[in-house]
Structures are given as structure tokens and as C-alpha cells.
């Protein structure tokens, strides 16, 4: 799925798990998406794009990441689901195998998500 048409009303939701760095980086991702004509909405809302900025400090953090991925997919099965952050970096293969995950983005590429979708 691609949503790169600029005249389409596009809604993006970002879920942030983990540290303050992730919160800061999620704000930057949101800003880049807005610059690319996305409307950023609450992760609890229906969106066309869900970005899960993940954590993997503990096993619980990994579990929460997988749970948020499943929640996003259940909110809109047709949405594009992108997983980024430390869990995506450490467990890229596991993330990619989750049905409904469209893109796994490592930490070094997370600020180019707007261009990748």
C-alpha cells in the first residue's frame, strides 16, 4: 500500500513506547509527516498510517510493542503499519513476520518514514 498522493486526505497516528528519546523522535516524525501533508491523529483513532516507535529495553517492552502493532492493525486492517525504534532494530525479522506490518524501519532511517510511505 502506498499513500504518496498529495491530494489525498491522509491521517497518521504515532504510538510511542519507551524513553524520552523516543518521545522526542516521535515528535520529529510527526512534524515530517505534517510537512508531507499528513494529518496526525491520536493512536486511538482510525488512521491510514500507523507508526509504532518501539522500545526493547525489557521483555515487557517487546510485548507492549507487539500489542500496539496488533491494535493498530485491528483499528484499520487496510492501513499502512510501520514499526521503527529499538524493537524494530533488534527484532526486524520478527516484526516483518507479523501479519499486517508493511514496513520495518531501523533507527538510522526513522526520520525518512514520510518519504518511504
From TrEMBL:
Keyword Cytoplasm: yes
PROSITE patterns for this protein: MTTASE_N
Key words of the record: Cytoplasm, tRNA processing
GO cellular component: cytosol
Molecular functions per Gene Ontology: 4 iron, 4 sulfur cluster binding; aspartic acid methylthiotransferase activity; metal ion binding
Database matches in InterPro entries: Methylthiotransferase_N, Methylthiotransferase_N_sf, Ribosomal_uS12_MeSTrfase_RimO
Domain MTTase N-terminal: 10-117
GO biological processes: tRNA processing
TM stretches of this protein: none
Annotated PANTHER family: RIBOSOMAL PROTEIN S12 METHYLTHIOTRANSFERASE RIMO, RIBOSOMAL PROTEIN US12 METHYLTHIOTRANSFERASE RIMO
Name of the molecule in the record: MTTase N-terminal domain-containing protein
Lineage per the UniProt record: unclassified sequences, metagenomes, ecological metagenomes
Amino acid at each position: 500500500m502506498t499513500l504518496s498522493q498529495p491530494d489525498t486526505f491522509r491521517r497518521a497516528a504515532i504510538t510511542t513506547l519507551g524513553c524520552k528519546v523516543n518521545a522526542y523522535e516521535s515528535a520529529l516524525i510527526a512534524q515530517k509527516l505534517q510537512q508531507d501533508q499528513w494529518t496526525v491523529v491520536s493512536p486511538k483513532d482510525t488512521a491510514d498510517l500507523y507508526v509504532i516507535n518501539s522500545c526493547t529495553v525489557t521483555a515487557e517492552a517487546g510485548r507492549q510493542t507487539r500489542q500496539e502493532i496488533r491494535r493498530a492493525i485491528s483499528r484499520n486492517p487496510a492501513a499502512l503499519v510501520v514499526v521503527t525504534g529499538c524493537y524494530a532494530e533488534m527484532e526486524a525479522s520478527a516484526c516483518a513476520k507479523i501479519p499486517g506490518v508493511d514496513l520495518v524501519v531501523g533507527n538510522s532511517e526513522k526520520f525518512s518514514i514520510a518519504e518511504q510511505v
